[in-house]
Design brief:
Elements: H1 4-27, H2 37-58, E1 63-69, E2 75-81, E3 85-86, E4 93-97, H3 104-108, E5 115-120, E6 123-138, E7 141-150, H4 159-167, H5 184-190, E8 197-202, H6 208-222, E9 232-235, H7 239-244, H8 248-251, E10 258-260, H9 262-270, E11 275-276, H10 280-287, H11 295-303, H12 306-321, E12 329-332, E13 335-337, H13 339-349, H14 355-375, H15 380-399, H16 406-415, E14 430-431, H17 436-447, E15 457-460, H18 468-476, E16 483-487, H19 503-506, E17 514-519, E18 521-522, H20 527-537, E19 548-549, E20 558-561, H21 567-578, E21 584-589, H22 592-604, E22 610-611, E23 622-627, E24 636-641, H23 653-663, E25 666-674, H24 680-692
Parallel strand pairs: 2-4, 8-16, 8-17, 9-10, 9-15, 11-14, 15-16, 18-19, 20-25, 21-23, 21-24, 22-23, 24-25
Antiparallel strand pairs: 1-2, 1-6, 3-4, 5-6, 6-7, 12-13
Helix pairs in contact: 1-2, 5-6, 9-17, 14-15, 16-17, 20-23, 20-24
Bound molecules: adenosine-5'-triphosphate (ATP).
């Protein structure tokens, strides 16, 4: 009998041959550039098929499930891949798309019993699983076959073996798809109802970002008639992060999804009527030289709150209520339009239109009224004179109507509030990050919302740094509350403007529209790293669950004692030892300034690191140097945290969270260079972790 490996090798050769044949057939058909819509649709279909075949050619499938439907005798092997493939000769399905209903069994089947089911469009299909097999193919070569379930054999529930094989790999400079190893709790989120606003609280490395991107791909497949990629949008914290995640959707065969930051998007909405003040100064204050007092952050949080939103709405209502002057329009002697008539047009007939549009409508209507009135005048000469006069009257009448830009109106509102809420001093058009949401809201009220800017689905990553007001704005831009909102409250290092509890965001929706999920297993880092990092932050965790590691053991976390003078030498030694063995290594500093200094020193020592500072739009991988607060969302094979002393990381909530974020960026190795006196955060962590055997020791040196 053939071994599973040989069996799969033959199958692979067979499938690849069919893929090639199909590619050849398609290559023989030229592209269509004419105007016939039927031909255009056929051409688009062929293009999609070409893209799918390109994906299938590299790795046609990754899993196999042998399933016997209830009341049938045939056991059917179902091959599951990133895209579906059909045998052109027989019409049989060669490979089923991972998003198809039947594929859900591959992710939900745990092997506890041989029974399984899936929900097809025609109802629930039940049956028996005979085999669940993971198949690793790279560049058309079969690399590995792991049976995680064989009916009747003792060998069940070894799913982790394949997962661990995947997790142990080094990562390059891009986030990757995880279709072959999606875990049950992740799959539940990916396949969740379209019209739910999903909030995911997930520990570092639990796959939040990855899951959100897979959910997009799933929604596009499941609701292909209703959802289009151009109508989906991803909000991410910065451009570098967008670059870092940019390969996942194309890998899943999804293109054209807009990816942006809230600030860039909001500025687009405002059409450059404002200038966003650089956030560098404030970030520097918050992360680097924070002194007591949080006046600035209180204002930022207030301006991001639903309370402030309600205040803005109330003032807008008042503005609207007094918008139309309470006086008639007098065209000429004895000819006037009563104020009540004009108000009726504005407040009743045009009430569904935005404010400024209504104003235009009223003016156009007065003009039409004038035209009919002119006709009543018999002689030409007085008519010409009267027309001129009436036009001038209309111009001066309309001048008595309010005429604010959103920014002017907002500035006026702020001036009416206590002084500390004022606009920033500086250029006239300059605003702060937290002013963006109210300004977009005012713009909508004045000029309306462009239907092109209404999305079928919105992803909000690192949502703990988003304000409720911002989310409320986005809700207006979303059809049917279809949101994926993800983040981690233990990583809320921008708490001066973000949220501290998910309740704050959930309140933007009706309660029956929201579903909350938790992802508590960390897939990124080894057990040793997760245990160590948990100790750092546990004091500040409150109700938030700490990360559970996957059972993947690696090297102990190494805390290396390095005094000021020897710090550079120790770092160089460490790099020489580790860098060649990994694809990505980050040196994480406490501040931007220190990142720059180390960068210069490494350059002088012949290294070629990439310096990552705020505003960076690209992530290149390899050796990176960056301040800790910019490392959020990223991951590296190895991480070196520098300057773990009580000056750089004193024992407070922000520093604990920063250190936690930094440590949880590491997949396989974590090194901490510690100076005297060592940071109390790591002192505590160290004592606990040493007991658990996760840390090699405080004074270990690099040899
Ligand atoms: N089911 C899985 N199979 C294989 N790898 C996984 C799985 N889930 C997550 N990962 C891997 O774990 C790492 C972390 O994923 P991701 O960045 O999406 O997590 P996150 O929750 O957004 O993390 P953070 O909060 O730290 O930004 C990635 O390398 C991802 O490929």
């Amino acid at each position: 009998m053939d071994t599973p490996f040989n069996e799969e090798k033959k199958k692979l050769a067979d499938v690849l041959k069919k893929v090639e044949q199909q590619q050849k057939t398609l290559d023989g058909i030229p592209r269509y550039y004419g105007k016939d819509p039927v031909e255009q649709a056929l051409d688009a279909q062929r293009q999609k098929q070409r893209q799918n075949l390109d994906i299938a050619k590299k790795e046609p499938y990754f899993g196999r499930l042998d399933f016997q439907e209830q009341q049938t005798s045939r056991v059917v092997p179902i091959y599951i891949g990133k895209v579906g493939l059909q045998d052109e000769d027989t019409g049989d399905l060669l490979v089923v798309d991972w998003r198809a209903p039947v594929s859900s069994m591959f992710y939900s089947f745990s092997g506890q019993s041989d029974r399984a089911y899936y929900d097809s469009p025609d109802g629930r299909i039940e049956g028996t699983v005979h085999l669940k097999r993971n198949i690793a193919i790279r560049n058309q070569q079969l690399e590995r076959v792991v049976d995680s379930y064989v009916r009747g054999s003792e060998n069940v529930n070894v799913t982790d073996e394949f997962l661990l094989y995947r997790l142990e790999e080094n990562k390059d400079h891009r986030l990757r798809d995880i279709v072959s190893t999606i875990q049950y709790e992740q799959d539940q989120i990916i396949r969740a109802e379209r019209n739910w606003a999903i909030i995911i609280q997930g520990v570092p490395g639990s796959g939040k970002t990855t899951v959100a991107l897979h959910r997009l791909a799933y929604l596009l497949y499941r609701y292909q008639e209703k959802i289009r990629p151009e109508k989906m949008i991803i909000f991410a914290p910065n451009q570098m992060f967008i670059d870092y995640i940019s390969d996942v959707l194309p890998e899943l065969g999804v293109g054209d999804v807009k990816q942006t930051t809230f600030a860039d998007w909001a500025l687009e909405q405002l059409e450059e009527q404002v200038e966003l003040r650089s956030q560098d100064e404030r970030l520097e204050w918050w992360f680097e030289q924070r002194t007591e007092g949080t006046k600035g952050s209180e204002v930022a949080r207030f301006k991001g709150s639903i309370r402030f939103m309600q205040l803005v709405e109330k003032r807008l209502d008042e503005y609207e209520a007094s918008f139309v002057p309470d006086r008639p329009f007098v065209a000429w002697e004895n000819k006037h339009l009563p104020a009540e008539e004009i108000q009726k047009w504005f407040y009743e007939e045009y009430r569904h239109e935005p404010l400024m549009k209504r104003k235009e409508r009223v003016m156009a209507r007065i003009k039409r009224w004038l035209e009919t009135e002119y006709k009543e005048i018999r002689h030409l000469d007085p008519r010409r004179e009267i027309k001129k006069k009436a036009s001038a009257q209309l111009r001066s009448f309309m001048k008595t109507w309010p005429n604010h830009t959103p920014l002017k109106w907002y500035q006026q509102l702020l001036r009416s509030l206590p002084a500390e809420y004022g606009m920033v001093a500086g250029k006239k058009k300059e605003i702060e990050w937290e002013d963006l949401a109210p300004l977009v809201a005012i713009k909508h009220r004045f000029f309306g919302l462009d239907a092109k800017e209404v999305y079928d689905h919105i992803v909000l990553d690192e949502a703990q740094d988003v304000s409720p007001y911002q989310l409320a704005i986005l809700k207006k831009h979303c059809r049917g509350n279809s949101f994926t909102i993800l983040g981690d409250l233990l990583q809320n290092i921008y708490s001066f403007r973000g949220i501290t509890e998910w309740r704050e965001l959930a309140e933007v929706f009706d309660q029956d529209q929201v579903r909350k999920f938790e992802l508590n297993t960390s897939y990124r880092s080894t057990m040793e790293i997760i245990r160590f990092a948990n100790q750092i932050v546990s004091k500040y965790a409150g109700d938030v669950a700490l990360a559970k590691p996957v059972y993947r053991s690696g090297e102990p976390v190494r805390v290396i004692h390095a005094g000021r003078e020897e710090r550079m030498e120790k770092l160089l030694q460490l790099l020489r030892q580790t860098f060649a063995k990994v694809q990505s290594l980050a040196i994480i500093m406490r501040t931007e300034e220190e990142s720059r200094k180390i960068y210069e020193q490494l350059l002088a020592n012949g290294w070629q690191p990439n310096l990552i500072l705020s505003g960076q739009t690209e992530y290149r991988g390899g050796l990176s140097i960056l301040p800790v607060y910019l490392s959020k969302g990223m991951e590296f094979d190895a991480v070196v945290m520098m300057d773990l002393d009580d000056q750089h990381y004193p024992d407070d909530e922000l520093n604990a969270k920063l250190l936690f974020v930094g440590c949880t960026r590491a997949l396989h190795q974590l090194y901490l260079l510690c100076n005297d006196p060592c940071s109390p955060l790591i002192g505590r962590s160290l004592a606990d972790a040493v007991q658990e055997g996760a840390v090699e020791g405080l004074l270990s040196s690099v040899d």
